Amino acid sequence: MVTFHRVLPAELRAQYPLPGLCVTPQELRWYLEFFQQSFSCGSLRHCAEQMQNNTTLGKPLLAITFDDAQEDNFRFAKEVLDAFDMRATFFVPTCSVETGEPLWHDRVGFSLMLVSKMHKDGAKELLEELNPALKVLKPGASLEPTHLKEVMASLKSLSDSDRQRWMSKLEE
User: Fold this and answer.
1) What is the phi/psi pair of residue 31, to 5°?
2) What distance in Å separates the CA atoms of residue 19 and residue 15, rounded to the nearest whole number?
3) Is residue 40 classed as helix, strand or coil in its secondary structure?
4) Side-chain half-sphere CA neighbours of 34 within 13 A
5) Which contacts (CB < 8 Å, 24+ apart) does range 47-54 have?
6) Taking a C-beta distance cutoff of 8 angstroms, is the pair 7, 16 a contact?
7) Rounded Cα gap, residues 108 and 104, in angstroms
């Protein structure tokens, strides 16, 4: 199984705080071309049915999935998938759909982008207040784009309620 999150044109990807979660439509096209040559590709259901019925077509199976149901998956990934006549599975986080709130990692990413643009003293004070929960930054250190991956990993280790409290303070 291969999983994608975001599919954004280069100009939108450059504005997104978590570029490691993105591929451009051109990169997706490259991946799908490679996958099509090397694997029997399809949705998770299609691959599971082929395995269950033992009807694989000689090539190894590869399920293509998209997490988080971002609108760009429909706008940009679908067109590329259609060009290859490929199907994929799209996972939809229903809690985000119900609340209309961005996913937590996007909330944190965009908030940290803003913090990194704040006046150094204000950003430093905020990060010193928030850092004990994460233990990512050394005392007095400023936030750099390279810290984002560490911050995200630390946030994943927190309970939902602690992560929500941390994010609310950051967004505030």
Assistant:
1) -60, -50
2) 8
3) strand
4) 7
5) 47/1
6) no
7) 6
One pLDDT digit (tens) per residue for the chain, 172 residues: 999 999 999 999 999 988 888 999 999 999 999 999 999 999 999 999 988 888 767 889 999 999 887 889 989 999 999 999 999 999 988 877 788 788 888 888 888 777 777 656 666 666 666 666 566 656 555 555 566 777 777 788 888 888 888 888 778 7
**Coil, strand, or helix at residue 129?**
helix
The residue to which tokens 């982008």 are assigned: 113
| Short-list 106, 118, 168, 171, CA closest to 143 | 118
Any idea how long the chain is? 172
Q: Does residue 124 contact residue 138 with C-beta atoms inside 8 Å? A: no
